[in-house]
Design a protein that fits this description.
Elements lengths: L5 E10 L9 E7 L20 E3 L1 H11 L3 E5 L7 H13 L3 E6 L13 E6 L21 E6 L2 H14 L4 E6 L5 H11 L4 E2 L3 H4 L4
Parallel strand pairs: 2-4, 4-5, 5-6, 6-7, 7-8, 8-9
Antiparallel strand pairs: 1-2, 1-3
Amino acid sequence: MQNSCMKVNEIFTSLQGEGRNQGYPCTFIRLSGCNLACSWCDTPASRDFSGTDTSPDEVLHAVEHAGNPRVCITGGEPLLQTGSLLPLLKSLKARGYEVEIETNGTIPFQPVLSYATVCMDVKCPSSGMKSDLSLLDDIRGTDSVKFVVADRTDCEFARETIISRKIRGEVFLSPVWGSDVHETATYLANNRLPARLQVQLHKVAGFR
């Protein structure tokens, strides 16, 4: 494996709280650095590039030691380090790991699709940020899309996007932690959206 280092914030085991693998034990690789500054960001420590220089071999060793078949690569924005990430992804796939990458939808993710599924977190108005909605055209049936919603305005943005883009992957509406879950659930049910309500299960269960 190539040894181009990546900036790693942390590697840890938890329950997958979101997405298609919600509820499964998972090894998380949190990379450092983000190109956005969402108003409700729950991992501000991973925004800058102050993480530890770690080689793909070192990350792979940590994943193998953890012993989980599922791996989630998150951030920050992990695709800012695509060049260093690709050797790791190739090795993980060769060893049979099921890998998901969480991305904020601002960087093309085609280079990683041969090795991982993608969960694109589409930024809603309350975040103060914007995703590149054209990237939704590259979402496959095995991928997923998440709208983190804080209020009705966010829900309406999600509805318009879901209808206009004809997303192929599974779609989730995830209330911002601490917001009114019932309001989001009611909006979803009343508008009959092709999406699922999803709360952050890891936080409900007391995991990070």
